[in-house]
């Protein structure tokens, strides 16, 4: 008997796959799990997209850069390969849509972002786009794409990271209708505005038609996003997929400490007003407060013990940037505070701010606190998440995974496009294991088989719409 070309499984492995297929109701074709598309081609596309960069030395694709435009064109070609009708909107988002059996039904949206941080990994954002297209391509090959009960639309968002304009979720926020029109006039370090960056790529947008990019909530069924975990939990438990229960709320502060520049040798210690020492004390205070919030916060009917318990499981506070410009008399640092409990997050901010002023008064320093960004926590939809959990189980089980109740349910400490899209519709997310929990780094890595599992999960989810 002649060997079957391109089939790299052993006879024993094939027997086990066929046995699993019979047991779980998979057809022989489905039993092979479409690895050539959901794994081999998907991984190849991730590597191909990972080479589309504005730098020769590392991966960098920021909003409307030359590389982001090339990446969008590549993704659009892959969308068409999956049988989707494509277009680019006036915020640079790349769309691919199939109307299914009932074009008037509410559409399922699936997406993630095509932009990256500087010196990035190739899975953040891209994984969610490519796995969605792979799953839809399998449906096309099986002749099932036209049998979808509702329209399905994949969106590759033009900006989530906010690197170029320091304004996150440009792509998804405009679809959700929560992007302020003033954002068009925000400029980058070179003085180019968001509107100007779009116009350089022949995309003309005004304040009036920005508002028209918002989707009608009545036309949308829900939003699903697949994303790398960006944390170590899935790797620790040895599973490729996990369900997301919600996304932590986030506040970014800019703290400025002003003192007096004194000669290092001539101003006595008791007369010094050094802002660097004061800033260091504030940073240590922040760490202590967020490590043990129950030791600092007072609780009443509005801020109960349950808040302390919630904070203990989700509160993360970090300092991102410290600057002494323009002189040693001024120190600024940025603070990022995240938690699933919005009331608890506000309590932490209030306590931190109060203690900042106490410490600065004691040191005869002037301290200013600016709130630069706020986003409420997002809870994933129970019904949509249940469907996604069942799909993840259907994906993991043939690969030797665990029972469905044991699939991890995780909180996302990182922001995602689902955060913006929650203002438009119900959302659900699926996390994919990444090596060491590393992200936003060239060391970011997802196993080929985990890419496969993610694609299988989305395929199973889409099949529930047939």
Fill in the keyword field for this structure.
466 residues; alpha/beta; Aminopeptidase; Alpha-Beta Plaits; 2 domains; nine-stranded mixed beta sheet; four-stranded antiparallel beta sheet; disordered N terminus
How would you explain this protein's 3D organization?
The protein has 466 residues and is of the alpha/beta class. The chain folds into 2 domains: 11-247 and 378-463, Aminopeptidase, CATH 3.40.630; 249-375, Alpha-Beta Plaits. The protein has helices at residues 11-24, 28-31, 35-50, 66-81, 126-141, 170-176, 194-200, 207-211, 233-237, 275-291, 305-314, 342-362, 382-396, 417-421, 448-463; strands spanning 85-88, 94-98, 107-113, 152-157, 220-228, 241-247, 249-258, 316-323, 330-339, 366-375, 378-379, 409-412, 427-432. Strands 1, 2, 3, 4, 5, 6, 11, 12 and 13 form a 9-stranded mixed sheet that branches. Strands 8-9-7-10 form a 4-stranded antiparallel sheet. The longest helix has 21 residues, at 342-362. Residues 1-29 have low confidence and may be disordered. Its EC number is 3.5.3.9. This is allantoate deiminase.
């Amino acid at each position: 008997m002649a060997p079957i070309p391109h089939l790299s499984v052993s006879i024993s492995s094939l027997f086990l796959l066929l046995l699993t297929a019979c047991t779980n109701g998979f057809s022989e074709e489905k039993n092979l799990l479409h690895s050539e598309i959901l794994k081999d081609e998907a991984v190849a596309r991730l590597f191909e997209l990972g080479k589309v960069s504005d730098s020769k030395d590392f991966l960098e694709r920021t909003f409307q850069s030359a590389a982001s435009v090339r990446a969008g064109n590549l993704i659009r070609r892959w969308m068409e390969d999956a049988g989707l009708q494509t277009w680019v909107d006036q915020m640079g988002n790349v769309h691919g849509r199939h109307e299914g059996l009932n074009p008037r039904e509410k559409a399922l949206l699936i997406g993630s972002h095509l932009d990256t941080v500087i010196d990035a990994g190739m899975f953040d954002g891209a994984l969610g786009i490519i796995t969605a297209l792979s799953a839809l391509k399998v449906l096309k090959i099986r002749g099932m794409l036209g049998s979808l009960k509702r329209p399905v639309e994949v969106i590759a968002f033009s900006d989530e990271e906010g690197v170029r304009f320091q304004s996150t979720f440009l792509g998804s926020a405009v679809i959700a209708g929560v992007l302020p029109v003033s954002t068009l006039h925000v400029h980058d370090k070179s003085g180019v505005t968001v509107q100007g960056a779009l116009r350089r790529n022949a995309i003309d947008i005004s304040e009036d038609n920005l508002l028209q990019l918002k989707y009608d909530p009545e036309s949308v069924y829900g939003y699903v996003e697949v994303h790398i975990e960006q944390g170590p939990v899935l790797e620790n438990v040895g599973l490729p997929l996990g369900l997301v229960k919600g996304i932590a709320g986030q506040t970014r502060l800019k703290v400025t400490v002003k003192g007096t520049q004194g000669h290092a040798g001539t101003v006595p210690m008791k007369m010094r007003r050094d802002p660097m020492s004061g800033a260091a004390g504030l940073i240590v205070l922040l760490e202590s407060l967020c490590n043990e919030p129950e030791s600092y916060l007072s609780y009443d009917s509005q801020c109960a013990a349950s808040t302390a318990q919630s904070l203990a499981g989700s509160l993360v506070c970090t300092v991102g940037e410290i600057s002494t410009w323009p002189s040693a008399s001024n120190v600024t640092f940025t603070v990022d505070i995240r938690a699933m409990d919005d009331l608890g997050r506000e309590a932490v901010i209030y306590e931190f701010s109060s203690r900042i002023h106490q410490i600065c008064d004691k040191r005869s320093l002037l301290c200013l606190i600016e709130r630069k960004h706020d986003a409420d926590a997002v809870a994933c939809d129970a019904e949509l998440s249940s469907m996604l959990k069942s799909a993840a189980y259907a994906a993991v089980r043939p690969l030797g995974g665990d029972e469905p109740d044991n699939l991890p349910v995780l909180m996302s400490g990182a922001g995602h496009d689902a955060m913006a899209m929650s203002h438009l519709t119900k959302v659900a997310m699926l996390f994919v294991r990444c090596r060491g929990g590393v992200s936003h780094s060239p060391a970011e890595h997802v196993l080929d088989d985990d890419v496969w599992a993610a694609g299988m999960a989305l395929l199973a989810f889409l099949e529930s719409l047939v």
